[in-house]
Specification:
Blueprint lengths: L1 H17 L1 H21 L3 E3 L2 E2 H31 L2 H6 L5 H30 L8 H25 L6 H18 L11 H7 L3 H13 L15 H22 L8
Antiparallel strand pairs: 1-2
Helix pairs in contact: 1-5, 2-3, 2-5, 3-5, 3-6, 3-7, 3-9, 6-9, 6-10, 9-10
Length: 260
């Protein structure tokens, strides 16, 4: 069983790497955004805290959102329209292997992308990497929970686009809006209160907040909406979104297109 999942995962990774558009958009986009924003906004948002340090946490979360949610919500409708899912459903291969392959692909690409973002930020913009085992542990569980929630929501949302042609137009605006209201491009507390409240419903805001606790000094926690990092709440909400995403996957996933 594990061998089937591993082989399917390797196949998914190869298919991803063969698509230059996917590679460029998923892996290069966050790096390009860091280079642009860090070059333009080189000031401090608080004494001793550069905007770069704040922005990088948001871009790491955005990278996980892109590879987990956005890429799957676009890729799966394409496979559905091409009849790939219908053919897979007709083979003896257990259905869960298909999803396991997607999870392996997302995990592998997510690790590589995060490593690239950390390397670029540390090399060119003096990002201070976590200095203790506890911070690395927080970084790990926030990333894993966040990526899991984004992956499950991406699979569930893949049933929303009516066709492969419209998938990008449907999915990309959702991802962009979440980035703007979740404190990726701007300091979260500078956003209007109503926007903060909407963002607090979705996982990206909590991924950003959890990662800020890793890369920003403890003194900045007082500037958060709750006056602290609220890591317990971060874990609770990301875990809840994993459950919600799984339920939606089971109830809404379609193997064939509406035309079929």
């Amino acid at each position: 069983m594990i061998g089937l999942a591993r082989r399917q995962g390797v196949l998914e990774i190869k298919q991803f790497l063969r698509s230059r558009e996917s590679v460029v958009f998923t892996m290069a986009f966050p790096v390009i955004m860091i280079l642009i924003f860090a070059s333009i906004f080189d000031g401090e948002i608080a004494p001793g805290i550069k905007f770069t340090q704040y922005f990088v946490t948001g871009m790491i979360a955005t990278g996980l959102l892109t590879v987990g949610f956005q890429s799957l919500a676009i890729q799966i409708p394409i496979e559905r329209d091409r009849g790939v899912l219908k053919r897979l459903r007709g083979t003896p291969m257990p259905k869960w292997v298909y999803f396991a392959g997607k999870v392996v692909m997302v995990a592998a690409i997510g690790v590589v992308e995060t490593a690239i973002l950390l390397g670029v930020s540390a090399a060119f913009f003096d990002l201070s990497l976590p200095s203790s085992a506890s911070k690395w542990l927080t970084f790990a569980w926030v990333s894993v929970l966040g990526l899991s929630a984004c992956t499950l929501c991406g699979i569930a949302f893949s049933s929303v686009p009516r066709s492969a042609r419209g998938a990008t137009a449907v999915v990309t605006p959702v991802a962009l809006v979440l980035q703007f209201i979740s404190g990726v491009f701007f300091v979260f507390t500078d956003l209007p209160t109503w926007m903060q409240q909407i963002a607090a419903i979705f996982p990206l805001k909590w991924m950003c907040q959890g990662l800020r606790s890793v890369f920003l000094p403890p003194s900045f926690a007082a500037a958060e909406p709750g006056g602290s990092w609220e890591l317990g709440k971060v874990a609770l909400i990301l875990g809840a979104w994993c459950i919600v995403g799984l339920v939606l996957c089971v109830r809404t996933f379609r193997w064939t297109s509406a035309r079929s």
